[in-house]
Amino acid sequence: MKKKITGLSPNTQYKITFSVELASNANTKAVGVGGGPGTSVFLKAGASYTEPVNTIDNMNWYRISIDKGNQSVAGKDMINIGNIGVSDTTTAYTLIKRGNGLPFVQRSGPNGELWLIIGSDSGFEGLTTLYYSNIRVTFQL
Most exposed among 9, 24, 42, 86, judged by the fewest C-beta atoms under 10 Å? Predict the structure, then answer.
């Protein structure tokens, strides 16, 4: 997901805090191809002054135009705020909350804009379905 935020001070560093509530049915003890459905799917949050867009590489894989890092590892534009695992016995969709303890620091663009990005980065090679119910973002100078 992405959303353009306007009205920020131009070329200014902001400390950004994310709080994401979502419903997941991912078991933390289950195993799967490439990793577990709960422990190998990472929730990521971030911001970029350039709009994130999908591209297709030479292998016909979708890629995002920003630096999201890879799976649990953060990139310049996105950080890992936890996995989507609920518990070791879950089978039902359950609300979970994830967020960053330390603020994520990003500089706004020359027009005082930032694109917020929320998504998942997965090592699990099966189907993942998530239902986002609440996203809160706080900016501090």
Answer: 9
